[in-house]
Amino acid sequence: MQQIDLARAVFLFLPLFLLGLLALPGRAVLRTVAALALAAVVAWLLPQVFERGALTYLASFSTMAGIYAILSLGLNSQWGLAGHVNFGVAGFYAVGAFTSALFTTTMPEGALAAYSQQAFGLQWPFLGGVIMGGIIAAIVGFLISIPVLRLRTDFLAIATLGIAEVIRFIFQNERWLANGPQPMRGIPRPFDCLFKDPACSWLPQGAVDFLAPLSPRDYVFFYLIVVSLILAVVFIALERISRSPWGRMLRAVRDEEASAAMNGKNVTWRRIESFVVGSFIMGVGGAVYAHYVVSIDYSHFNPLFATFIVWVMLMLGGSGSNKGAILGAFVVWGVWSGAAFMIDAASPALQLISPDLPSRGAYLRWMLVAIMLGLIVLYRPQGVIKERKKVSDFMSDKGDASGEGDDATAEQPARQ
């Protein structure tokens, strides 16, 4: 194995290890050992099985799928946990992206200031920008939720969609804020000096020599680690939340809002809290996206790409299931990306049907996503991974087979 392939394998190890922890069954210790061994083997094999260009594309694909998985988890904390119909994912996605960009970039100077404008540039580090992206998105979500969450079902969906479009048009038209219709460029990438020549000044000479064969195009392997770690933190936090008393209360509000209110729960504030949590996660997803693509503008946050495809991801994976939200993001993004190759390969046949048909490939991709959505609703409305109703591993499984697990568990103390 050449040094460049070994360096890529080292970067792939951590994302593969986290994937193993998520996917493998069994107890924690055995699962950790198995994930370590499997990640080491797969990371060593991938550079030898795939060509370097194909492996770079695979890392780029996984990075974007991971960003969409963060958005899907944010939506799951609203719809899957509390039942909010939020069609405004794109709005919070945009707020997080532009906020992080403003906090981490520098103010335009010299000739650049003549055609590039922004409200401020604080040169904060990457992590500070990501956190502020989430916080500002959460604040916007709080302000929106107070009037909007008084609505229900279709009216709530229309209101959130409209608010997302208002946010997008603000970034499009207010040039003083984030350069308006022109792209906001120069968003810094964390530790990109690892792949430059000369490398980071603080890097030990041994690490410099190890990374020397890598070029700036290999940065995607490092950013895949960043996305994987943020995705893991969000997943663990939501898993803890869903199993906490607060998470169980949100499910009660989702399933029987009137009963939860009669039991003394402040339903309005619980709905607002869950909406704010989801908005924060979506803002984090937007911030991570901004630092990956380096240049953003309002067109990146079209509802088709930043709202409805996220809904398809969550519905396919399983509403209410955090693992399902991640699985759905990777599957749907795989279908979306694979459809582009399929359409390119079928272009000669499509041209025989109609000369204009190959140029409409984007619409064919959306048609595939729409067909997938229809199949999900008809044949698997609960998703690939169903919501786990039993939130504690200490609860007895007795009676689950007959559908009486919850009642049987609740009656056990009385029988004793």
From TrEMBL:
Organism in which the protein naturally occurs: Roseovarius spongiae
Cellular component annotations (GO), alphabetically ordered: plasma membrane
Keywords: Cell membrane, Membrane, Transmembrane, Transmembrane helix
Segments for region (Disordered): 394-416
GO molecular function: branched-chain amino acid transmembrane transporter activity
Name of the featured protein: Branched-chain amino acid ABC transporter permease
Pfam families named in the record: BPD_transp_2 (PF02653)
Subcellular location: Cell membrane
Residue ranges of the TM segments: 55-75, 87-106, 126-148, 155-171, 220-238, 275-294, 300-317, 324-343, 363-380
Lineage: superkingdom: Bacteria
InterPro entries in the record: ABC_transp_permease, LivM-like
Membrane topology field: Multi-pass membrane protein
